[in-house]
Predict the structure.
Amino acid sequence: MKQTLILPVLLSLTLLLSSCANPNKAQMGAGGGAVAGALAGQAIGHNTEATLIGAAIGTMLGYMVGNEMDKYDREQLNHVYERGVSGQTNSWRNPDNGNSYQVTPQPAYSNPQTSQPCRQAEIQSVIDGRRETVYSTACRDQYGHWQLQN
């Protein structure tokens, strides 16, 4: 039984470690999914094997959910962070998958630790009929691209 756990555990660890350098939404979803899956596995199975299986399943599910925002949506979000008027809501609907987003950016500020320009935003989305609201912060990297922060 323990040998069958090696592949899922290695997959989980690989995804989690790769998310440390410059995490994207899918990688952050994988990390959160791994934690939630491990907790669920431990609560259900009360042993290490159940915890590891839960972490592996949670990692894969979290990665898939986090990856819902595709390239088109990331470009739209980047445009809002770059040119959006503070306090004014920007909306779009993805023509490929029908997901819709409303983003309201706040005024830019300088991160006191890194001196990078940063902005906070409220992101409301409707994905597969489910409404979700997220508050995010993005900072401009050395190449001028907005990167979502943890």
